[in-house]
Design goal:
Helix content is about 65%, strand content about 0%. By secondary structure, the chain is an all-alpha fold.
């Protein structure tokens, strides 16, 4: 056995993949499912609009929060530099 072959002692027949059982995707219609009714479609469209608006608000707020945190860090860095310069000037 080659000393560089870490897996030479494994039984390759046992390592072959076993086919998985095919299951229906929850997103694919099945023969027993029915089409959504018009009120369901309207309700889902309204939910989509609400979620899209909420998503936009969250994106905007995240951007504002990021810029605020970045400017606060920059302000603190400037203050640290000022204090360090003051300390160096006193020595």
């Amino acid at each position: 056995m080659n000393e560089d072959d870490l897996y030479g002692d494994l039984n390759l027949a046992a390592a072959k993949s076993v086919p998985r059982k095919q299951t229906a995707s929850p997103f694919e219609p099945t023969a027993s499912s029915t089409s959504p009714s018009y009120p369901e479609i309207v309700m889902l469209q309204q939910q989509i609009k609400t979620l899209e608006a909420e998503n936009e608000t969250l994106k905007k707020n995240m951007g504002i929060l990021y810029r605020t945190a970045k400017s606060e860090l920059d302000r603190k860095d400037r203050r640290i530099d000022e204090l360090q310069n003051d300390l160096d000037a006193q020595r």
